[in-house]
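Feature request, filed as a ticket because there's no other form

It would be nice if the structure record came with a short human-readable summary line next to the C-alpha cells. Right now we just get the raw output. Example of a typical job, pasted below so the devs can see what we mean:
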Amino acid sequence: MKTASFKKTGMAAWIIMTVAAGPAAQASATTNSPAAGAEAVLPEMVVTPLRIARDVNSEPITVYRLDASDGALRQAVRSTPDALQGIPSVFAQKTSYGQGSPFLRGFTGFRTLCLIDGIRLNNSVFRDGPNQYWGTVDSLSVADYELIMGPASVMYGSDAVGGALNALPIRPPEFAGSPAWQGRLYGRRAGADASTVGRAQFGTRLSQSLGFVGGFSLKEFGDLKGGRDVGAQEHTGYRERDYDVRMDYRLGGDSTLTVAHQGVNQDGVWRTHRTIYGIAWEGLQVGDEKAHTLDQRRGLTYLKYRGAKPNGPVNAVECALSRHVQTEDLYRVKKDDKSEEQGFDVTAWGGALQLRSDTSLGQWVYGTEYYFDDVSSYARKHKADGRLDKVEIQGPVADDAAYQSLGVYVADTIRLLAGRLDVVPGARYTFARADADQVEDPVSGDRMTVEDDWNTVVGSLRFLVPLSDDRRHVVFAGASQGFRAPNLSDLTRLDIARSSEIETPSPDLDPEEYVAWEIGLKSRFERLTSRVGYYYTMIDKMILRAPTGRSIDEYAEVTKKNSGQGYIQGIELAETLRLTPQWSARVSAAWMDGQVDAYPTSDAVKERDYISRLMPPTAEVTLRRQTETGKYWCEAVGKLAAKADKLSADDERDIQRIPPGGTPGYAVCHVRAGARLIDGPGVTVALENVLDEDYRIHGSGVNEPGRNLVLAADWTF
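Raw output as currently delivered:
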C-alpha cells in the first residue's frame, strides 16, 4: 500500500482545524441582494465548483458557464471540445478531425476531468496525452457547460488537475399548469468538411410531476479541406450517431427522481497523420501506415435523486447510481501489409451520495462516491495475406482487469466580517486500487499480474473578498491540491505512444501531486464584465514517459516513471463590454509558461524541459451587434495565436504533428449572422476562415478548416 505524502499535505489537516475552530458565520452562501438604487444585474448561476447552485461571483475560483442553446455557440461548434474555444488558457488539440482533446491550463487527457451531469466520463483506461473521449459527448444534447479552471480534486477526485468540465444535459420542459409539449429540429451544413448534422428532439411535461425529453443526432463528416495550399485532407471524414432520453419525476416538495440514458456510436475515425494520407505541411513527415481507424461506442445510464429540506440537520441530499460502458476498436494496416486489431471494453459502475448542511459554522457540502471499472481487452495480429498470426495476452491495456476508487470529501463556506470575507476550506480522502490479471511482460513476453493500491489526501483553502455589497466586484485567492492516481493505462499500457514510440507496462508508480496558487478579480459593471487572474501550479511526481533503450517492432520503447517536477504559470483575461444597447465586444487572452523534468534524449538522463504542447500566447476578439428585440444578430470573430516554438523533446520527436521549429502562429477571421424570423424557427449563416488561411491548433494531426460556409437552422415548436 502506498500513501501520497505531499510536501504540503499538511494543508488538509490545517484546513480541517480551521473549520472546526471557526467563529459563527452566516448560514447562507447565496449572493446578496443588489444595493438600493443599483441597476439589477442577473446573477450567473453555476453548480459545479462546490456542488451547489451559486452565483459565479460568489465562487472563489475561475469558472465559466456556457449556454449550449446560444445560437452563436451552437452554430460554431461541431463537438464538445470545440465548445470551449475562446476561453482563456484553453485550446482544443485534434489528433484527428473526430478526436478533440482540450488543454486546460497546460494539461489534457487524463489530467483533465469530464463529467456528465456530475458523473465521471473519465475511467481507468484513459491514456496520457490527448485522447478522443470528450468528443463522445454530444454537444446537441447539452443544455449548459460549466468549466472549472485549475485543480478540482477536492470535490471531484483524481484527474481534475488542469480543470473539470461538467456537461449538463437538456431537461424536460417546465410545467405551465397544463400538459406542455415541446419539439425541436436542428440542422447544420458546412462546406469545408461536406458535413451534415441533424437532431430531432421531443419533450413533454404531462403534469407537474412527470416530464420527459429525448433526442437523436445524426452526423456525417466528409474529408476536411484545409486552407488555400493544403486543400483536401484525405480520410478525415467519419460518421456519428447519438441518442439520449431522460425522465424527471417529482416525488413531492423539492424532491426529484431522474432516470436517463445516452449513447454514442462513432465509425471510421482515422488517425490520418500516422498514415500515407497525412500531409507534409510546413515540413511535417508523412506516416507510413496504410490504415489507422477507430470505432467508438459509449453508453451511460444513471438514476439520480435530488431532495431539499429547509429545516433539519441535512438541508439537501443528492444520490446517484450509474453504469457507464465504453468500447473502442482499432484497426491498423502497416506499410508491409501486416495488420492489427485491438481494443477494450470498460464497464464502470458508480455510486455517489452528497449532502448539504447550513449551520452556524457555514454551509457544508460533504459526501462520498465510489467507482468500479471492469476492463477487458484484446489484440490480434495478422500476416500480410490476412491470416491470423498471433493472439496477444492483452490489448492496449491489461485484459481481465479491475480498478476501483473510493472518495470522501467535505467543504465549507464560512462568511465572516458581516459578509466582507468568505473562507472556503475543503479536504478529500481517496483510496484507489488496480488489479490486472492479464499483462504482458515487455521483456519476456510472458503473462504477469499487476496489483497495487494508493491512499491520497488533498486539501484546498480559498478566500473571496467582496468589494461591493451586491458582490458585483470581488477579489479571490487561494491554494488547492490536485492529484492523479495511476490508472490501468499507466500501469499496463502496451501500445503506440507518439509518432515513433511504443509504451510498455510500468507496474510500480505513485500518485501525481500538484499544488496550484491562484489570485483573480471578477467585476460586473453596468456595461463591463471583467475577469482577470494569475495562477501558478507546482508539479511533483508527474508520471512521464522515459526511454529504455530497447526497440519493439521498429518502435523505440518507453516506460513510465514518477520523475516530473516543475511548474506551469499563466495570466488570463476575459472582458465583455456593452458599447451600446445593440453593440458589444468581447476580448479573451492568455499567456502561459511551464517546465518540467523529463527525458529529452534516449540515454534516460533527466533534464529540465518545456511542458509538452505548451500553449502559445493567444487572443480572441469578438464584435457583435444584436437588435433590441434579439431578432437579428451578427458578429465578427478574430482569433490569434503566436508561434508555438517552446517545444519539449517529445514535441520535437512528434514530427507527424508538429512542424520543425514549432507550429506556426496564425490570425484568422470568422463572420456570422443569425435571425429568428418568427417565434420558433431560427437561421444562422457563417463564413469561417474568411481569408482561407492554412493553420492548425498546436499538436494536432490535421489542419483546421479553410474557408468554410456554414448554414444552420433551429426550430423549436
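Something like this underneath would help us a lot:
The first helix runs from residue 10 to 21.
The longest strand covers residues 528-552.
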